[in-house]
Structures are given as C-alpha cells and as structure tokens.
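Provenance

Sequences were taken from public entries as deposited. Structures were produced by running a predictor on each sequence independently, with no templates supplied. The record for Alpha/beta hydrolase from Plantactinospora endophytica is shown for reference.
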Amino acid sequence: MPLRRRLARWLDSSAMLEPDLMTLMWAGTRGYRAEPKFPGVLTDEQPRAIDVPVLLVAGARSAMLTPAEAHARGSLMPHAEVAIVPGSHGGFNRIDELNDRIAAFIRAQATGERATP
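Predicted structure for Alpha/beta hydrolase:
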C-alpha cells in the first residue's frame, strides 16, 4: 500500500487521496516557513481558575491529548465539559458530529443546563 494511502487512512483524511487537493495544498505551502512556537503547559492551578463554561474537544485517536488526559484536564476546570470525537484525531473530519456537540453545548449554556454527550 503506498505511503500516502496509509497516511490518509491513519489520519482518517480521504482528502489526501485527491490529486487536485494535494496539488493545491503543496502550492499553498511552497515557500512557507513556520517559526516553532510551543504553547506553555498549564499548571493544575491555572485551569482551576477558569471560571467560564469550557468545552474541551479531543479526538479519540489524538496523539496530543488522549481522552483520559482530556477528562483529567477537564475535571480541573469547574465549568468544563469534555467531548471526545470518536475515531478521530481532532474532529475536523467528523465536522457534523463536532458541530452538533458544539451547538448542544452553546444551547445548554443559554438554558443553564448541562449538555448531554
């Protein structure tokens, strides 16, 4: 199996198999130079100080923030809900599910109730 096909399957991104999209992506990145800027890691006390509703979204297959880590971080925030997008790295390939979850969270904030996962 070609490398791109394996990578597309692992990333759950069929767009990588579309030649026109890949040409556009490579054209857009030509000449781009990113400065690596890594975000600071919050201490446990900093999330506890967040006093607004928070929806923490993580993909079930995320390498950056596993579901267990997301739940642990979310439990530190007094008004946080954790949404795990199944079978995804970050939810961008399951945009309908992600949008539904975000909309439910916003509706719950407007009515003063907790959104159901």
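The mean pLDDT is 83.
The radius of gyration is 18 Å.
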